[in-house]
Amino acid sequence: HQVNVTKATATFGMGCFWGAESLYGATQGVLRTTVGYAGGSADLPTYRKMGDHTEVLEIDYDPTVISFKELLDLFWNNHEYGLTTPIKRQYASLILYHDDEQKQIAEASIKEEQERRSPEIITTEISPKKNFYAAEDYHQKYRLQGHKDLVSSLNLNQKLLQTSFVATKLNGYLAGVGGVEQFKSEVESFGLTPTQRQYCNHHVEQNEGQGLYC
Ligand code: MHO
């Protein structure tokens, strides 16, 4: 049911990618997300051997619904990037732009953020997106995968854990992002069975506002 949408991609490193994936998943205008490793030069990184890469989230979004600037506002408001504590390369704050327009918006945005947060020094790096390596299956839609029976009833195979719109949304909502009202306003479009819907509704209610954890 996601036909004829315009699509753009954003890539952010903002600490543990499980949290980032839930945060953006429940955000309207976000179409699908994939967690992975990027920003470095090592070949074929894995979670155990990431080399100089960073945990990042790749976000496909509909720019007619949410702008890159709005994605960046969520970015700034949901992770640590100050110099107060040193950040490991694995959890570095990164904006990997996909085109010149994103680059310009990111540069303007970091300037604003620097002024807002002064005297704190922002460590966020802005660089072109080069290679992106999808992370292992068990990291994809991590919070959704905690609901094993739901995952199997949705027939989410390894590929769909990376590509499915419904998996993207539920991974956010089930973690308590977005809230019950917003969930109810779009659950119709997820094509869930009544049982699946009831199950999700219960957990969305229970987890609303609980905060992301890693
Ligand atoms: N505390 C978590 C972090 C995982 S994350 C994807 C763990 O050690 O498993 O970096």
Tally of strands = 6
| Rounded Rg | 17 Å
Spatial arrangement of strands, main beta sheet: 5-4-1-3-2-6
> Helical region count?
9
Number of domain units = 2
Strand content: 15-25%
CATH topology of the largest domain: Peptide Methionine Sulfoxide Reductase, Chain A
What ligand species are in this complex? S-oxymethionine
Q: Give the helix proportion (percent range).
A: 25-40%
Structural class: alpha+beta
Named at the architecture level, the CATH assignment of the largest domain is: 2-Layer Sandwich
Ends distance? 31 Å
What is the CATH domain class of the largest domain? Alpha Beta
Can you summarize the main beta sheet? 6 strands, mixed
What is the string of SSEs from the N terminus onward? EHEEHEHEEHHHHHH
- Corresponding CATH superfamily of the largest domain: Peptide methionine sulphoxide reductase MsrA
Shape type? globular
| Poorly predicted tracts of residues | none
Mean pLDDT: 95
Walk me through what this model shows.
The chain is α+β, with helices and mostly antiparallel strands. The protein has helices at residues 17-25, 68-77, 100-117, 142-145, 148-153, 160-163, 165-173, 179-186, 194-207, and strands at 8-14, 30-38, 54-61, 93-97, 125-128, 132-134. The chain has two domains: 8-134, Peptide methionine sulphoxide reductase MsrA (Peptide Methionine Sulfoxide Reductase, Chain A); 141-207, no CATH class. It is built from nine helices and six strands, in the order βαββαβαββαααααα. Helix 2 (68-77) packs parallel to helix 3. The longest helix has 18 residues, at 100-117. The relative contact order is 0.18. S-oxymethionine binds next to helix 1.
